[in-house]
Amino acid sequence: MQYCSRLVQRVLGHSGRNPIGGCNDEGCSLQELLANPELLGVHAQTLHIDRVNTGNLTPYHLVIVERAKKIPTKTLRAFIDYYNTGGRLVWTGDAGTELGESYVGGKLVKDEFLHAIDRSSSDVNKLLERQQGEDVVLDFNVPIGPWARKDGDLMISFDQLLSLNYAGNYCQFNTCFEERPIHVGNLEPEPSRDHPLIRGIAAELQLWVFKDQDFAIVQTIPGGITTEVLTLDMGSNLIIDDPTDSRRTDYGRTNPMIVTSGVGGRVIYYAMPPELYANPRLDDFDKGLYYLPLENMYYGALFG
User: Fold this and answer.
1) Element containing residue 155 per DSSP (H, E)
2) Containing domain of residue 165, as a range?
3) Residue 294: which CATH number?
4) Cα separation of 292 and 289, whole Å?
5) Which of 3, 114, 150, 277 has a 20 to 30 Å separation from 182 between CA atoms?
6) What residues does 256 pair with on adjacent strands?
7) CA torsion, points 188, 191, 196, 200, in degrees to nearest 10?
8) Residue 229: which residues within 8 A CB-CB, separation 6 or more?
9) How many domains, in total, are found in the chain?
């Protein structure tokens, strides 16, 4: 199911070899981890993504969106409105990267992506600088990315709210396994290591992931108000060949894992859902479980 989880009262989504709460063979939900009295003891209210509108987001100090790959454009607008009225937003993984649909005049209408040609010339130039090599011509009819949408004549630039572009999930581009984790690199905190979202975290922690329990490959958008709080060093550049047009894209050696954006850092993006840092399945393979990203998400997002 797809959920929009909202804090100060309840979310979706651990402990050692004997997991606490509603954990199962596939891991623990964020909601269960937050409610765990040995961790935070926070009970978050949960709202299905289909029921989200600006009005029912407004009462909450913090909204967390996860397990919601398919999000209609009108719902993305509601999240933008929520931010514009002072809300704090936590976005995770591939949430909102699949088009939704809505009823217009009694007819089901599929949402649309925003294309480069729809943006102003200055934005197109930035896009060219970021995506075009010396011998590559950017097709302006190609969607900018799944977080850039059209709503009639309106541009819904959710990508600019996050200050990120989404490329895909790691295990789409690499071989991952459901039955055992693979090592994907080391986690590097921002130099001071004093940001509230990572306070107390050690440098160069190893990151291991399972298939379908991985992280999003994202790139920051130049010119945005962003802070890369936590970064993954993958050890070598992630280079992807597109079989449809023989295009090769180099995503670099590092991937942002926690990014803040917007005024006051009120938008927080987690490339990997916070509960996966403490995935109990890792314990069966003697891999480290990290609880600080989860605990710091709550205290850092609300109190700084």
Assistant:
1) strand 154-157
2) 3-303
3) 3.40.50.880
4) 9
5) 3
6) 231
7) 70
8) 189, 190, 195, 197, 198, 258, 259, 260
9) 1
- Cα 104 to chain centroid distance, Å, stands at 29
CA torsion angle 161 151 66 49 (round to 10)? 140
- Report the 10 Å Cβ neighbour count for 110: 10
Q: What's the sign of the alpha-carbon dihedral 65, 101, 26, 240?
A: negative
Furthest CA-CA distance within the chain: 57
For residue 185, the SS3 value is strand
Amino acid at 304: G
Contact 228, 188 (CB under 8 A): no
- Residue 233's φ and ψ, nearest 5 degrees, are -95, 110
Token output for 57: 């987001």
Residue in this structure with the two tokens 């409610």, named with its chain if needed? 35
Q: Are strands 112-113 and 205-209 parallel, antiparallel or unpaired?
A: unpaired
- With tokens 């997002």, the residue in question is 301
| CA 247 – CA 269 distance, rounded (Å) | 28
Q: What are phi and psi of 203, to 5 degrees?
A: -85, 150
pLDDT tens sequence for the chain (304 residues):
455 554 543 323 222 333 333 566 667 788 788 777 777 777 778 888 888 888 888 888 899 998 889 999 999 999 999 999 999 999 999 999 999 987 777 888 889 999 888 776 545 555 555 554 444 445 566 788 999 999 888 899 999 999 999 999 999 999 999 999 999 999 999 988 889 999 889 888 999 999 999 999 999 998 778 999 999 999 999 988 766 666 788 899 999 999 999 888 999 999 999 999 989 899 999 999 998 888 888 888 876 6
Q: By three-state DSSP, how is residue 169 classified?
A: strand
